[in-house]
Each structure stands twice: as structure tokens, then as C-alpha cells.
Amino acid sequence: MSDKPYFHEPNHTIHLRVWALGQMVWGAFLGGVFLVGIGLFVWAIYLIGLLLPEESRQTPSPYTSLEAPLVVDHLA
């Protein structure tokens, strides 16, 4: 075994702070990679949508059957 301590810093508090900062930086990196992955996925869907013919983008809204006129029945 070695006579040298495991910690790089002689103060354990500083070592713990460096470790915690490293964990936060790694988490931020993974979050950024995940965000870029979502952005690339949305961009790919957009590019595929551009390949569709123009007529496919001019279809009526599928929500028109959900919209019904308001009928007020006056019983007077």
C-alpha cells in the first residue's frame, strides 16, 4: 500500500466541494446532450414535413367536428 493519502487535497472539505461541482457539471453536460437530442429529433420531423407535398399541408382542421354552434333554447 501507499503512504500517501487518497485525497488530492489535504482538506477534506475542499475535496468534497470539488467532487460535488464535478457531479453538477456532469449532470449539466448530460442534460445538454439530452436537449440537443430532442432538438435534432424535432428538426428531423420538420425536414420530413418539408418533403411532403403542398396539398397535404392545406387539409382542413380535424377539430372542426368538435366545434359545434351554441344553441340557446329560450322557453318563454
Describe the structure.
This protein has about 80 residues and is an all-alpha fold. The protein is elongated. The protein starts with 11 loop residues before the first helix and ends in a 25-residue tail after the last helix. The model has no long low-confidence stretch (mean pLDDT about 85).
Summarize the structure.
This protein has 1 helix and no strands. The model has no long low-confidence stretch (mean pLDDT 83). The protein has one helix at 12-51.
Question: What key phrases describe this protein's structure?
Answer:
mainly alpha; 1 helix; 76 residues; 53% helix
Blueprint of the fold:
Layout: H1 12-51
